[in-house]
Amino acid sequence: MPETIDEMIARHKKEVKSFQGEKLAAIKNAKSRGKKAKTAVKEAEFKYDGLEWDMKERHRMEMDQLSGGGEVVNGDDAAPSQEEAIESTAEISQEEATPSHQPLTSQAEEQPNTTSLNEEEVRRQKALQKKLKKKNQQRQMEIDREKRIEEENSTAGPSRRQLELEAMQTLYLRPRGLAVQEVEADGNCLYRAVAMQCRRLNLDVVDVTSEKCYDKIRTICADVLMGSNRAEYEPFAECGEGYSAAGGGENEHHGNHPATFEEYVNNVRSTSTWGGQLELRALCEGLKCPIVVFSAEGPPLTMGADYAQGGAAEGEMSCDKNNSLLLSFHRHYYALGEHYNSVVPE
Question: Dihedral through CA 96, CA 98, CA 100, CA 105, nearest 10?
Fold first, then answer.
């Protein structure tokens, strides 16, 4: 006996519930993998996002096939409500489930609208599929990067990283009662570190508990770069033909340099592109707060000293650590490139 729409909706709900349980179990298992937990969780999420898409697409196709003929399969004059169909990741319109007593002329008039709706649904599904594919590619890149970082950490002995960190701590951090607070190693490290410092100073700027707390900091930075003082930043941005010709057109952080300043700022706003001194200076303006950067290469560097209480000169650290954002710059923290951490009182 053929499956009715009600039976199909019930089966779809059961499959979704079972899938969610399986996904949660896989993520829970990934979280128990110690040092590799973060990578394992991302891999599990990546896998189950794809499986969920496949399941929803299958549900939609099954519902379309069952309801597409316009026949009443429930034995009632009225088809299930549209809300019930949506719960099973498909939509059943009143046009697709026309009661048997409706005049044939009315059915014929409705046919073009149904075709138009089907075409619109196809376009919508293609757009969603393209968006999901791009998201999955980004996530896969993050997973691959974290795997490389884990491999580095597992094979590294006494390294340039340790020597650099020890020099910074001995010369500049411990004498001031400060210590490095590690920040996740990705293209957002500078912005994550600034967000953590905003919390330390109780600046009501961003919700640091959010996984993407750096998004707000990126937005502040991009708004300043494109703001009224744009002319102070644009000449120093790594973009345009002139910069490419002088600098080779590519570096380890930004890949191919953006062709325009607008494109450069868009990357700051909405991608995982690294940030540097240009972005830090913009953030000083946006947050109205000085930023002090520690490194093993020399004395602490203060930017945005004009925003310090009482004012101060740019350059060597001259701002109160209790009123400044404190970061550390590492050239050898990871072989993959430069890195920023947060600095906090011991």
Answer: -100
Q: Which residue has the higher pLDDT, 52 or 115?
A: 52
Distances (CA, A) of 250 to 189, 237, 240, 262, 335: 20, 13, 12, 18, 18
Beta strands in the chain (DSSP E): 178-181, 250-251, 255-256, 291-295, 298-303, 315-316, 325-334, 337-345
List residues bridging with 303 in a β-sheet: 291
Q: Which of 246, 307, 254, 299 is closest to 276 using CA atoms?
A: 254
- Residue 210 gets which letter from DSSP? S
Asked whether the beta carbons of 131 and 119 are under 8 A apart, the reply is no
Looking at residues 27-50, what average pLDDT do you find?
A: 82
The full set of domain ranges for the chain reads 5-154, 156-345
Q: How far apart are CA 293 and CA 288, in angstroms?
A: 16
How far is Cα 37 from Cα 50, in angstroms, rounded to an integer? 20
> Has residue 248 got a pLDDT over 90?
no
Residue whose C-alpha is closest to residue 236's, from 196, 280, 284, 198: 280
With the C-alpha atoms ordered 71, 77, 82, 87, is the resulting torsion angle positive or negative? negative
d(CA 192, CA 196): 6
Chain segment 185-218, per-residue pLDDT in tens: 888 999 999 999 999 999 988 887 777 889 999 9
- CA pair distance 152, 44, nearest whole angstrom: 22
Strand partners, 315: 302
Please state whether beta strands 291-295 and 325-334 pair in parallel, antiparallel, or not at all (unpaired).
Answer: parallel
CA distance 15 to 21: 10
Task: Please tell me the predicted confidence (pLDDT) of residue 115.
Answer: 63
Distance separating the N- and C-terminal Cα atoms of the chain: 72
Please, are residues 327 and 291 in contact by the beta-carbon 8 Å criterion? yes
Class of domain 156-345: alpha beta
- DSSP symbol at 235: G
- Two structure tokens written together for 49: 């996002």
Q: Nearest CA to 197 among 211, 181, 216, 220? A: 181
Instruction: Give Rg (Cα) of the chain.
Output: 28
pTM surpassing 0.70?
Answer: no
